[in-house]
Amino acid sequence: MDQIRQEMVVWDMRRITSQPAAAASNAAQVATCLIKRTGEAAPELVGGAMTTDPRFDRLSKALSGKHKACSGKSSGLPLFLINSAVAEQLIRAKNRTYPDRAAPADAAAGASLYKAAAGVTIDSVGRCLAVQSPGLVYKVVAATPGSPQEAQALANAYAQTPSCGVPAAPADIPVVEQRAALTLGLFAATHRTN
Description:
Blueprint: H1 13-18, H2 20-38, H3 57-64, H4 79-93, H5 104-110, H6 112-115, H7 122-132, H8 134-142, H9 148-159, H10 175-191
Helix pairs in contact: 2-4, 4-10, 7-8, 7-10, 8-9, 8-10
C-alpha cells in the first residue's frame, strides 16, 4: 500500500520575496477562512507593531486554537503576512474610495497614528503614507503582489508623499514588508485602532 505524502511548503523570507504572489495567495486563503469564521470580530485579529497586540497574540491563538482549520496553507508563513492579508481583505470589503492625498484636516487628525512611534520605522512610515496619501496606498493594496503595478504604486506613494521623509522605496526592506506596513497603516487609519 502506497502512502500518500503531502508536501509541506516552508515559507522563509527568501521564498516569500522570490514568490510574492504565491505567498500572498496562501496568506489570503488563510485570511478568507479567518474572516468567514470570526465575522464581525475579524478586525480584532489584526495586530503587529504600533497596535495593542504587537506580537500578533490574537492571530496566533486563533490559528492554533479555535480556527486551526484555517491554517492549512499557512505552514511557515510569518504572522505579519497573514496579518496583512486579513487587514487587506477588511479594507477591500469596505468598498471605499480614497483621495490620492488627504485633506490637510484629515492628515492632521491622523498624525497621531504615526507620530507616537519611537523613531522612523517601516511601520511608522507605512502609517504616515496611509494618513497623508490614502489613495496612493490603496493602489499598493489593490495591486497584485510582485507585479509591476505594485512596484509603480509603491514608488508613487513614496515619491508623492515627501512629508513622510522617505522619498523612495527603501531598497534594503523587502517589498512584501513595505506592502504589509502600508496595508496596516491604511487599516489603522480607516479603523482608528490606536
